[in-house]
């Protein structure tokens, strides 16, 4: 059993965010980008993993439905990756998982629709991961567990924002029985700080399991501990996408004040955005009331 996490009944649907939920919705993409940037060693510049999530958030912030094919499709990195390159495959898997973060924000009020959209968005069919994971026959092979991992990540983010708690099993009821049993074992290992072989859980699932391994004791962590938890993970050699996912979950749980002010100010990346822009995109994706106009002085208030 995963330590520090309690399994509770699914949350009821909500239509209007409270001030606390509003605050937490704005922290998700910020925490994601911070974890990615710290683990990638890019002087607070987030990688293509975060850029993929931001690209989708730019669409969900405008009210577009992530279940629409034109919205959910990941165009992939600007440069075509080399087939069989493990680094490119890892980057593609990270993109698959992290792109479900803005999906979670956009569909907070509908867990059924969220599960559907997360499975579609995190699916690797037609994405760069297919082109970087050849089978023995030389043909690309999809990650069959990517959809389950995307659902678990998205519904855990939903619970973090709406209920202020961390629950890796928030999406268990949506999984097939066989997948649920497998993930029970994977999460139990993560609670002990361990990950399983990537062949057993799949590239996307391995990233998610790595995030929960980082958060194994995080249920007892207060807001002041978010920085040391993410910093330690970033310097431990953990996969940057796992650190990013853990950052999204922790920030979604604790809100904007848990993200250090220096991180907020220094974060930047493609497409020429900064930390405050991620806060705005997160809140707009969650249909929170945030000014659209970047010159509006009220826009600066979201970082307090």
Automatic annotation (TrEMBL):
<dbReference type="InterPro" id="IPR036705">
    <property type="entry name" value="Ribosyl_crysJ1_sf"/>
</dbReference>
<protein>
    <recommendedName>
        <fullName>ADP-ribosylglycohydrolase</fullName>
    </recommendedName>
</protein>
């Amino acid at each position: 059993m995963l330590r520090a996490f309690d399994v509770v009944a699914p949350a009821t649907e909500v239509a209007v965010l409270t001030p606390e939920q509003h605050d937490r919705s704005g922290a998700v993409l910020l925490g994601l980008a911070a974890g990615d940037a710290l683990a990638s060693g890019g002087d607070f510049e987030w990688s293509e993993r975060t850029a993929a999530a931001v690209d989708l958030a730019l669409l969900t912030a405008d009210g577009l439905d992530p279940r629409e094919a034109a919205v959910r499709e990941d165009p992939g990195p600007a440069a075509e990756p080399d087939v069989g390159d493990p680094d490119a495959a890892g980057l593609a898997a990270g993109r698959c998982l992290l792109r479900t973060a803005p999906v979670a924000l956009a569909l907070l009020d509908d867990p059924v629709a969220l599960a559907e959209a997360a499975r579609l968005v995190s699916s690797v069919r037609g994405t760069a991961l297919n082109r970087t994971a050849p089978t023995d026959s030389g043909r690309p092979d999809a990650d069959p567990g990517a959809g389950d991992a995307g659902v678990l990540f998205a519904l855990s983010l939903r619970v973090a924002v709406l209920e202020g708690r961390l629950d890796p099993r928030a999406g268990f009821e949506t999984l097939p029985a066989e997948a649920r049993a497998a993930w029970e074992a994977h999460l139990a290992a993560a609670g002990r700080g361990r990950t399983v072989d990537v062949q057993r859980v799949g590239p996307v699932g391995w990233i998610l399991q790595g995030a929960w391994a980082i958060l194994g004791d995080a249920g007892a962590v207060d807001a002041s501990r978010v920085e040391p938890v993410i910093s330690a993970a970033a310097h431990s050699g953990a996969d940057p996408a796992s650190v990013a996912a853990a950052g999204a979950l922790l920030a979604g749980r604790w809100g904007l004040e848990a993200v250090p002010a220096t991180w907020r100010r220094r974060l930047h990346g493609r497409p020429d955005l900064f930390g405050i822009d991620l806060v705005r995109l997160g809140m707009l994706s969650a249909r929170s009331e945030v000014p659209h106009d970047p010159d509006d002085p009220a826009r600066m208030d979201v970082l307090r």
